[in-house]
């Protein structure tokens, strides 16, 4: 049975002037809308207490299981306002399916796909005035689930909280698309076979933060991880998937297994043939990447994810020096793919894949 998320309106929503001030300069992940969607699961009764309620803090007991064993998962997605004022989601069922995969891996209850989508839709409908218009602005949506049972034993929790919050987001590249430098981590790994690499859980990101700090110390925006076994195969970035464009028009990305099955990643694989690229999923060694950059066999590298969509990579940096990617500027294939995806999301290009999901 699909959960219903009826609206319990906030008694103190922000004024039009306050909201417009936020939308004029939203940043990312710092301002939140007036409501949130919630539901609770218990082992005895299943899913219940679903609603859209006023945004506010949770009251957590110090012995809540999530605070001790990190049993939690989350998703990241966006709502887009089209030129005619309508509001759309991009492939919400894919986020719902991945949410269920993550839940299984973290011993959490699965939320039915239909209920996940209903929760997101209900929140967007309630806070539709917060969906920005113009440029690459959007309403960022964060569904998440955590173990709220008050219990210190090591087992799957018998009480769980689900929630969706929303935050207006401006253009990731407000001054135009700029290439970034990436730090190649030698001391840290992100995920191991049999681990939680394919689940979107906070622990994966927490484990990447020290390597991310190391990257920042070397003037880099992100960190590139290799596999945890041989330390030679490219894994993914701290929070994004990675792609390589070759001189013979292949679009190569590391195969799934210990990496997250990105929704943007999957869309790029589908778009590639339409733009004259052959998509290839396989193991890619770091040695192949560096040599390919030096010889010209690899002409472009980019990262992809929900927040930035596609980010060009201009150089790979490590203790042994810096390897430039072509001339260090955003490559034509990177920009072409980025524009094609954005045009679909914002309704400027025909959606032949059936990816867009209208809410308003």
UniProtKB/TrEMBL annotation:
GO molecular function: L-isoleucine-2-oxoglutarate transaminase activity; L-leucine-2-oxoglutarate transaminase activity; L-valine-2-oxoglutarate transaminase activity
Needed co-factor(s): pyridoxal 5'-phosphate
UniProt cross-references to InterPro entries, sorted A to Z: Aminotrans_IV, Aminotrans_IV_CS, Aminotransferase-like, B_amino_transII, BCAT-like_C, BCAT-like_N, BCAT_family
Catalytic reaction annotation: L-leucine + 2-oxoglutarate = 4-methyl-2-oxopentanoate + L-glutamate; L-isoleucine + 2-oxoglutarate = (S)-3-methyl-2-oxopentanoate + L-glutamate; L-valine + 2-oxoglutarate = 3-methyl-2-oxobutanoate + L-glutamate
EC number annotated for this UniProt entry: 2.6.1.42
UniProt-listed Gene3D superfamilies: 3.30.470.10, D-amino Acid Aminotransferase, subunit A, domain 2 (3.20.10.10)
Keywords: Amino-acid biosynthesis, Aminotransferase, Branched-chain amino acid biosynthesis, Pyridoxal phosphate, Transferase
Pathway: Amino-acid biosynthesis; L-isoleucine biosynthesis; L-isoleucine from 2-oxobutanoate: step 4/4; Amino-acid biosynthesis; L-leucine biosynthesis; L-leucine from 3-methyl-2-oxobutanoate: step 4/4; Amino-acid biosynthesis; L-valine biosynthesis; L-valine from pyruvate: step 4/4
PROSITE patterns: AA_TRANSFER_CLASS_4
CDD domains reported in the protein's UniProt record: BCAT_beta_family (cd01557)
UniProt record, GO biological process: isoleucine biosynthetic process; L-leucine biosynthetic process; L-valine biosynthetic process
N6-(pyridoxal phosphate)lysine carried by residues: 200
PANTHER family: BRANCHED-CHAIN-AMINO-ACID AMINOTRANSFERASE, SUBGROUP IIII AMINOTRANSFERASE
Family: Belongs to the class-IV pyridoxal-phosphate-dependent aminotransferase family.
Name of the molecule in the record: Branched-chain-amino-acid aminotransferase
Organism, scientific name: Desertihabitans brevis
């Amino acid at each position: 049975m699909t959960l219903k998320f009826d609206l319990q309106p906030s008694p103190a929503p922000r004024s039009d002037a306050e909201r417009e001030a936020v939308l004029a300069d939203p940043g990312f992940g710092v301002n939140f809308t007036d409501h949130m969607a919630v539901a609770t699961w218990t082992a005895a009764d299943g899913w219940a207490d679903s609603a859209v309620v006023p945004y506010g803090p949770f009251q957590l007991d110090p012995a809540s299981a999530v605070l001790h064993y990190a049993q939690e998962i989350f998703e990241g997605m966006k709502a887009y306002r089209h030129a005619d004022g309508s509001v759309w989601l991009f492939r919400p069922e894919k986020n719902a399916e991945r949410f269920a995969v993550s839940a299984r891996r973290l011993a959490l209850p699965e939320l039915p796909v239909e209920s996940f989508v209903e929760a997101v839709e209900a929140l967007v409908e309630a806070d539709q005035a917060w969906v920005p218009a113009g440029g690459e602005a959007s309403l960022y949506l964060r569904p998440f689930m955590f173990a709220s049972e008050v219990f210190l034993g090591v087992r799957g929790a018998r009480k769980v909280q689900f929630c969706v919050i929303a935050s207006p987001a401006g253009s990731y590249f407000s001054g135009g698309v700029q290439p970034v430098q990436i730090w190649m981590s030698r001391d840290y790994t992100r995920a191991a076979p049999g681990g939680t690499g394919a689940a979107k859980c906070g622990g994966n990101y927490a484990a990447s933060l020290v390597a991310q700090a190391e990257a920042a110390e070397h003037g880099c925006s992100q960190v590139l991880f290799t596999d945890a076994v041989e330390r030679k195969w490219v894994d993914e970035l701290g929070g994004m998937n990675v792609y390589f464009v070759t001189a013979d028009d292949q679009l190569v990305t590391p195969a799934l297994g210990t990496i997250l099955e990105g929704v943007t990643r999957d869309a790029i694989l589908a778009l590639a043939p339409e733009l004259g690229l052959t998509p290839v999923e396989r193991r890619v060694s770091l040695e192949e990447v560096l040599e390919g950059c030096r010889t010209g066999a690899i002409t472009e590298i980019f990262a992809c994810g929900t927040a930035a969509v596609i980010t060009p990579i201009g150089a790979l940096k490590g203790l042994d020096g810096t390897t430039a990617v072509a001339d260090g500027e955003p490559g034509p294939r990177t920009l072409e793919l980025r524009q094609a995806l954005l045009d679909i999301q914002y309704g400027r290009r025909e959606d032949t894949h059936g990816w867009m999901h209208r809410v308003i």
